[in-house]
Amino acid sequence: MNAMTKTEPLLQIEGLTKHFHVRLGAFGEREAVVHALDDISFDIMPGETLSVVGESGCGKSTAGFTILQLHRPTAGRIRYQGRDLAGLDEKALRPYRRELQIIFQDPYSTLNPRMTIGEAIAEPILFHKLAPKGEVKSRVERLLADVGLPARFAMRYPHELSGGQRQRVAIARALACEPKFIVCDEAISALDVSIQAQIINLLLELQRKYGLTYLFIAHDLAVVRHISTRVAVMYLGRVAELAPRARLFGNPLHPYTKALLSAVPEADPAYERKRQRQILQGDVPSPMAPPAGCRFHTRCPLAIERCRVEAPVWRETSPGHHVACHLAEGGGE
Amino acid sequence: MSDMALKQEDVREEPPANLWRDAWYRLKQNRMALTSLVIILALAFIAVFGPWLTPYDFLSQDLIARNQPPAWAHPFGTDELGRDVLSRVIYGTRTAFIVAISVTAVATLIGIVLGAFAGYFGGLLDRFVMWFTDMTMSVPQLLLVVVINASLKPPLARWMEAQYLETLNPIYRNSIIIDFVLVFGSMALITWPPYARLVRAQVLSVRNRPYVTAARALGLSTPVIIARYIVPNALGPLIVAVSAGLGTAMVLESAFSFLGIGVNPPMPSWGNMIADGLRVWRNYPHLLLAPAMMLAVATVAFSFLGDGLNDALNPRGQK
Read out DSSP for B54-74? Predict the structure, then answer.
C-alpha cells in the first residue's frame, strides 16, 4: 500500500480487555469474573463508520464504553491520535472526553430531567469554554437547527419531548462538544422504525457536514448494511470478524457471521422460502465461564477438535478482512 | 429533515412546564397541605414579628392579676406570676422556630455533606461514614443531650464570663445564648443521621442513572456533576424530610425544655410553659392548653405539609 495515501487511524485499539468482578451467592461469598471484553484489537479510521454487531451480551456496548473510558479497561491500549487514554486520570482525560462523544440507546434517561433542553446543550459549551458567554444562546439554536429542532425547544424540558426529539437533543448535546468521534450505542434501537430512519439520515448528514467518525453499535443488520464503512462482528467478548461492509455481507468467512447474516429476514417471500437458513443450536455460554479454545465452538456447525483447545488467532486473510477462525479460507498458518 | 421533526411535535405554546412549578401546582390541589402551609406561614410571621405583636412584655409580672382565666385584657390569661400567656406563647413560637430552623439547617448540612460523599465515592469512605451514622443513631438522644449540656455548659459559661470581663460586651452576659447554642448544637448532633442516610440512598440511586454517565461522557468535572446532575435529582425526598424534620425538631426542643435541659426560664418555650402548666392544670387548664395547642398545631401542620410535598414531588401517576 502506498505510504503517501495511507491515513493514520484516529483510534488504535490494542488488546482491549474488560473484566467485571461480581459477587454471587446470598452473602456475596463467591466471586466471579465476567469476561465482557477479551483482547480485542482494531483501528478506527477518520471519517469512517465502523459498525459493531452481535447479539445481546456479546460485549459490544462494553467495547464502546471502554474505548471512551467510561469503563476503565482491565488491560490493553486505546491510542487516540497517538496518545494512550487507558492510563490517564479523569483530569487528563477531560479534553479527550470532549472530542470522543457518545449517544446512548435510551434518550429518555440520558437527559437530566431538571434541565431544559437549552441548558443541557449549553452545558458542555460553557464547561469546555467553546464559545464566549454571549454567543452560547445562538450556538445552542444553531445546534438545534442542525438536528432539525426549532429554536423554541430550548425552553422545554425533556419530559415534554417525544423519543425521537429527545434523541435529536442527545445528538445536539454531543455535537456541542465539537467531537471528532462519536460512539452511537444502539442509538436508534429504542425508537420507532419510522423515527429510526430519520435519526440515521440525520447522523449521516451530520457526519458529512462535520467530518465525524462513528463507532456504530447495533444489532439491526439492515441498518448496519446501510450506513457502515466497515463492520465488526462480536461474539462473547471477542471480535469474530472485521471486514469492509461489502466484503462482510458478500463473503463472510466466520461461521458465526454466516449464521448471523442468514438470520436476517428477506423482504421477498419467494426468496425467503427458497433460501437455506442456518440456525444456531443452543445458547450463548455464560461470559463468567467462557469456553476454552474458540469461544464459538460450542455452537459452531463446523467445529473440529482443534477449535475446542486452541483459540484462533486474529489474522488478516485478505487486505482489510480480519477473522478469528481456524477454518476460514486462507487456511491454517 | 426539520419538517419531519416538526410534524411529530404537538404545537402548543404555553409557557414551558417546570418540574418545580408542576410540583407547586400539585401541592395547591392538596387542601390539607395548603392549609398547613398557610398555618406555618402564619406561625412564621408571628415568630418573626413577635416583639411588635405582643400586647405585653413577656417578662413583666403583674402579681395582682395572677392565674387569670382568658379575658379581653389577657386573651390566653395570665400565669402564676401574672405574666401575659399570649405574649409568652408568641415568644415561645419565636423560640420554636429559631431552634427548629437552625437545628434542621445544621443537621441537613451535615447530612448532605456526609451522605453525598459517602454515596458518591462509596467504598471505605462510605463504610466509615455509615458506621459513624449508625453509631450516632444508637446513642439514646436524651442521654447525649444531657451529657452535652452537663459537660459543656459550665466551661462555656466560664468562657463567656471571661470574654465579658475582657471586652465588656454585654452580649457575653446573655445566658440565653448559651442555652441556644447548646440546644442547637446538641440537637443537631443527634438529628443528622436520618438526613445523611437519606441523602446517601438518594445519591446511590441517582449516581448510576444514565444521565450521570452521559454527563461524565461530556467531560464534565465531578463537582459539576454532583452539583448540577446529582443533587437536584436527589433533593425531592430531602425536602419532604426537612419539612417533617422541622416539626420533629420543635417537638424535641419542647421535650428538652419540658425536662429542663433545653431553653431555660425566664425565656419562654412551649416546652417549659407546658412543664409549668402541667403542675396546675386542674385549676388553671389554660396555662397548659395554650402552649400545648400551639405545639400540636405546628407539628401537625409540618407533618401534613411534608405529606403534601411528598405527593407533589413524587407523583407516581405521572407519565
Answer: -SS-SS---TTSTTPPS-SSS
Task: Please state, in angstroms and rounded to a whole number, the distance separating the CA atoms of residues B183 and B96.
Answer: 11
The reported pLDDT for the residue numbered B73 is 75
Residues of A in contact with B8 (CB under 8 A): 162, 164-165, 195
Half-sphere exposure of A180 (CA within 13 A, CB side): 13
Cβ within 8 Å of residue A4, ≥6 positions away: none
Residues of chain B numbered 160-219 and touching chain A (CB < 8 Å): 209-211, 213-219
Q: In terms of DSSP H, where are the helices of chain A?
A: 60-67, 90-99, 117-127, 136-146, 163-176, 193-210, 221-227, 245-250, 255-262, 269-274, 305-309
Q: What share of chain A is helix, strand, coil (3-state, %, to 5)?
A: 35, 25, 45
Q: In chain B, how many domains are there?
A: 1
pLDDT in tens, A12-48: 999 999 998 888 777 777 788 888 888 899 999 999 9
Question: Using a CB-CB distance cutoff of 8 angstroms, which residues of chain A are in contact with residue B9?
Answer: 150, 162, 165
Check residues A287 and A274 and name the one with the higher pLDDT.
A287
Grid cell, residue B254, equals: 419542647
pLDDT for the residue B317: 40
d(CA A240, CA A253): 9
| pLDDT given at position A215 | 94
Question: Domain end: A209, A228, A247, which one?
Answer: A228
Burial of B137 (0-12, 13-18, 19+ CB in 10 A): middle
User: Does residue A94 sit at the B interface (CB-CB below 8 Å)?
Assistant: yes
Contacting residues of B for A102, CB less than 8 Å apart? 214, 217
> Residue B10: pLDDT band by 50, 70, 90 thresholds?
very low
> Do A177 and A94 form a contact (C-beta atoms < 8 A)?
no
Q: How many angstroms separate the CA of residue B215 from the nearest CA in chain A?
A: 8
**Nearest CA of chain B to the CA of A208: how many Å?**
15
Mean pLDDT value across residues A303-311: 88
- Residue A129 forms contact with B (CB below 8 Å): no
Total of domains in chain A: 2
Structure confidence at residue B19 (pLDDT): 64
Q: Choose one of A207, A228, A249: the last residue of a domain.
A: A228
Minimal C-alpha gap between B203 and chain A (Å) = 14
pLDDT of residue B291: 87
> Residue A119's closest chain B neighbor by CA?
B228
Assign B17 a pLDDT band (cuts: 50, 70, 90): low
Domain containing A307 equals 257-333
| The one-letter amino acid at A21 | H
Residue A160 vs residues A333, B9, B11, B292: alpha-carbon distances, Å = 59, 10, 12, 48
Of B2, B215, B233, the CB nearest to A148: B2
Residues A161 and A50 in one domain: yes
- What's the pLDDT at A147? 93
Q: What is the pLDDT of residues B224-240, one digit of tens each?
A: 888 888 887 888 888 88
Centre a 10 Å sphere on the Cβ of residue B111 and count the other Cβ atoms it contains. Answer: 27
- Say what the pTM is: 0.75
- Across the interface, which of A90, A110, A147 has its CB nearest the CB of B214? A110
The pLDDT of residue A229 is above 90: yes
Q: What is the domain range of residue B258?
A: 34-52+60-313
Q: Within this chain, do residues A121 and A21 fall inside the same structural domain, yes or no?
A: yes
Is the Cβ pair A127, B9 closer than 8 Å? no
Which range is least confidently modeled, A78-87, A258-267, A316-325, B39-48?
A: A258-267
pLDDT tier, B2 (very low <50, low <70, confident <90, very high otherwise): very low
